[in-house]
Amino acid sequence: MGQVNCRSLCLSLFDYKTEKYVIAKNKKVGLLYRLMQLAILAYLLGWVFLVKKGYQTVDTSIQSSVITKVKGVAFTNTSELKERLWDVADYVIPSQGENVFFIVTNMIVTPNQRQTTCAENPNIPGAVCFQDSDCPKGEAIITGNGVKTGNCLMGGSNNSGTCEVFAWCPVEKLAKPKEPLLGQAEDFTVYIKNTIRFPKFNFSKSNVLQTKDRSFLKSCHYSPETLYCPIFRLGTLVHYTGNDFQEMASEGGVIGIQIEWDCDLDRAPSACNPQYSFSRLDNKFAEKSVSSGYNFRFAKYYQDANGVEFRTLMKVYGIRFDVLVNGKAGRFSIIPAVINVGTGVALMGAGAFFCDLVLIYLIKKSHFYRDKKYEEVRLTSQKFLSRRLVNGKQDSGCPGGPEPPEQLQTVET
């Protein structure tokens, strides 16, 4: 028997196997198969190639630089600052803006502060006292302005007083102006120059129109029709986010300026255009919340004729602008194109496999189609089933010897 198997194995190396196709006259399964083919074809051509451009290699490692310049002047007349003209050096922080810049729109000014002792603001938690023991000497008021001296300065209602502190006096008042100090900033303009580069394709572009006309940037303003004029009016920027400038100027806020570059480098460079979007990034839905708005403090220091230092403290409210740049570029490449086409062909095969399962397992006459798809073929021959002896022995089955009996075969199609 071992020699018979040896011969069969040798001969099987020269066998050729082919598939047998069964045509099932079933309209429901046929319709399902065509619908799946159409769906796969629509996905491959519509989504993969047209929408996602699956035939391209993509570079998302965008290199970007941002330069900002603000222009505008304003005039104010207040009891703390008197008559004053405000220009870019006064209301833009930092003076050299890049991806982030801040414009002052409102402030609380506390002039002529000196380091001495005075009463803490009674609205500060822990500042109210009834006797000196309520103000331990050397204890700092964390949310206040200085360190307690141990004295309780009486004079409040209900026989209460306020702790004396060593601080920059007079301490800052908490009430801010009802109207924004620099409400005129609504008409200021900001120039945002953005240059991008995709290193994989060595492609660069800027959001400024390439022209020799020197008056272009002095007369144009951004609009959806003038994408290459990056000069924005501040009031318009805030309006794009759905907010009112004067309201935001009073409390402060954060505006995001999103510049998106989506470049198809299979087309002309002129088709690669910046797309702008604007949104408010701070907690605009909590208008009455203590966390809404945007503010911080800074001081300007001086010395009097005796060399004693004093300062003007400013708590400023304003609008911070964050310039966010994103983008990607794509160009045709044979590798992703072949991969996506191969994926589509594989999905076609998966559709046929699914329809086979429906045909032979899920419909009512599945047993009938299953019998047609899987056919058993039995080949027998009486002369090969009989035993023949050569010189009184059984055939060896090896090459050169008598033919071995042909085996029972089952063919699955």
Quick synopsis:
With 413 residues, this protein is an alpha+beta fold. It has helices at 2-12, 27-51, 88-91, 216-219, 234-240, 245-251, 334-362, 366-373, 382-385; strands at residues 56-59, 63-71, 74-78, 82-86, 92-93, 100-119, 128-129, 146-154, 161-169, 189-198, 203-206, 231-233, 253-264, 274-280, 295-303, 309-332, 389-390, 393-394.
Account of the 3D structure:
The chain is an alpha+beta fold and 413 residues long. It has 3 domains: 25-55 and 334-374, Orthogonal Bundle (Helix Hairpins); 63-120 and 171-332, atp-gated p2x4 ion channel domain (atp-gated p2x4 ion channel fold, Sandwich); 375-413, no CATH class. 24% of the residues lie in helices and 33% in strands. The chain has helices at 2-12, 27-51, 88-91, 216-219, 234-240, 245-251, 334-362, 366-373, 382-385; strands spanning 56-59, 63-71, 74-78, 82-86, 92-93, 100-119, 128-129, 146-154, 161-169, 189-198, 203-206, 231-233, 253-264, 274-280, 295-303, 309-332, 389-390, 393-394. Helix 2 (27-51) packs antiparallel against helix 7 (334-362) and helix 7 crosses helix 8. The two termini are 29 Å apart. The model is unreliable at 382-413 (pLDDT under 50).
